[in-house]
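Just curious: can you write whichever protein you like plus the matching structure tokens?

***
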Amino acid sequence: MNKKALKIEGMTCSACANRVERFVGKLDGVDNANVNFATETLSVQFDETKLNNESIEEAVIKAGYGVKKNIKTYTFKVEGMTCSACANRVERVTKKLHGVENSVVNFATEKLTVNIDEDEIGYGEIKAAVDKAGYKLIKEEEKVTGKKKLEASKILLFRFIVSLIFTVPLLIITMGHMLGMPLPHIIDSMMNPLNFAIIQVVLTLPVMIMGYKFYTIGIKNVFKLSPNMDSLIAISTLAAFIYGLFGIYKINIGETEYAMHLYFESAAVILTLITLGKYLEAVSKGKTSQAIKSLMRLAPKTATIIRDGKEVIVPAEEVIVGDIILVKPGEKLSVDGEVVEGSTAIDESMLTGESIPVEKSIGSNVIGASINKTGFIKYKAIKVGKDTALAQIVKLVEDAQGSKAPIAKLSDVISAYFVPTVIILAIISAVGWLSFGETPVFALTIFIAVLVIACPCALGLATPTAIMVGTGKGAENGVLIKGGEALEITHKIKTIVFDKTGTITEGKPVVTDVLTNGISENEILVLAASAEKGSEHPLGEAIVRGAEEKNLKLKSIEEFNAIPGYGIEVKIDGKTILVGNKKLMNEKRIDIDVLAKDSDKLANEGKTPMYISIDNILRGIVAVADTVKPSSKSAIEALHKMGIKVAMITGDNKKTADAIAAQVGIDIVLAEVLPEDKANEVKKLQGENIKVAMVGDGINDAPALAQADVGIAIGSGTDVAIESADIVLMRSDLMDVITAIKLSKATIKNIKQNLFWAFGYNVLGIPVAMGVLHIFGGPLLNPMIAAAAMSLSSVSVLTNALRLRNFKV
């Protein structure tokens, strides 16, 4: 019997608890089921031979409730993978573990990302499963640093150079006679065939020792019935080597004709060329993660802080929340914080992509890794370590690079069956040619060529490398793409829904017009701003800011009375001042006909007119509006050129919404929409079977961002909106929506090219290696040429992915 405790969600009373108990208690194998409504916990005792956890969870769901799981995401480094078949194997064994919700292996970054229920499984069980599969799991998430990549490539370079040192003389000995190169009598194939053969063994063994990993990993995976690329190399080169040893035996008993058919040079050349390919692959892989390295290098190593009244230089990682940090002109900021002294201009382009330095003064927020350009400031540390904006961006990019796009599923399925199929085809080809009367040497050539030409690496690298470069390039341009799926879907978008306030518009009302009746504009503005000085209404704040921008001196008020829904009534210099809407004027019976036409015109333009009366006589109107962002119109025009429809959603009245829509060229206006209904409006557009993106910045946009096929959050928006989105625009510039779409198109095009070459290479290469051309009188594929082609296929895929680094907006 096994005991299990499950957290139940959705229960609202004891009747719910009883229902869950009944449904679970009826299951065959359950000995006892008890629900504690207070703790929302189901305790169940059951027979493991008759029942499993999934069946119990299904019963809870059938009862109408849910099982709350403690799901967390972890990323581990996996060592020992050499091709996509390895990555698929690690994925398969981890997905089978109870408690693992999802498992994704990125072969390009050599990382395993798992979503696990911590109540069900821990690191130990995952590690054991990966170890059993023949790979090594590292608990601490390792950052992809240039040093580590360099070390890996240096080892491969060393192995290649040593292999080359022995392979070149081996080739001269075995093939030099074709070029008229004489050999010393002691190793001449005609005079001393045994010596000729033995020297080849002596030169081949060091090359095989340098390539020992192909054998330790490849052969082990064959015995585990999970062959990979290393298995293909190991089997083919061992076959050539063993056949060579057989040839030496034949020479030793007098059959000297075997001296010309030993195949030692094929084994050595194959290993040397594959090692060269692996080296070039490692170098290229390092370049694909350049974006992460560049971001991580942005952070300064030290910070100057004030402790005990003294300036102290400490490592940046030792800065704690609350520390006061000094930054001189030209220095980088170490962490995120708030300016407490001084003013300056700060270059934030490395994080936001915005080239113009941003003015900062007391109270301004500053971002770690940005550069102080002009002034001397002190600021208080607010976010340090993994909480800084830079650390969060690095994490987002790493997560995105570790994700898979839906387009990768095809290559994953093929890769899973690829290597076993190739081995079977190699055996069929060799046996087939033997049965048609060809010699064992001919059959061996075919067998080795088929094994060596096949390249699962190219398939495995086709998608993740392009995603790594694409998401990295997005980060450089201030566009944070959270995953491969978002990157893929973005290029399919047919309709984009923009929230109005703070997205199309600035989100901050400003004074746009001042109309007067008998007094000057400045007088009206002074009176209105003085009256609104004590108000917290956004429109009132806009009027106060408008007066302050003109350096107008405000007057003190003698009385203040707020009239909710109408406006305010104050006394200034003994005069009664009313500031409010048309309803307030009508309520107080103030004639507004003198400015009625102008007022209607302002309203039709989407502006809000605020009426100002002095002693019951209308003296002016101050119009306030949320102005359109400079980039909104050009962004929408660009979207139209791309064939994308643009909708605007807002809670504002239809007249205001139509006015804004007319200014920027919106196709669909969704006005007077309540916050909770925004997601439904997005759903209606999706109902037309089209891909819809939502662009927003507020908390009330979060459900719509989540509902959309692609949610795009403005970087200046709320944390909730950013968390709900698939893409984050760091600069709050709508032109970056265009960048995201163009980058998606470029990346998907690159992935399709990679998959075409990877599939095409194998579809064409394997039949040629099997001898199809030879049937029609064509040439056979030399195993050494097959090895070179195999190495180049992976490098070509990586090189093509790296072309994305040249992406320009």
About this structure: The CA atoms of residues 372 and 761 lie 52 Å apart. The radius of gyration is 36 Å. The longest strand covers residues 505-516.
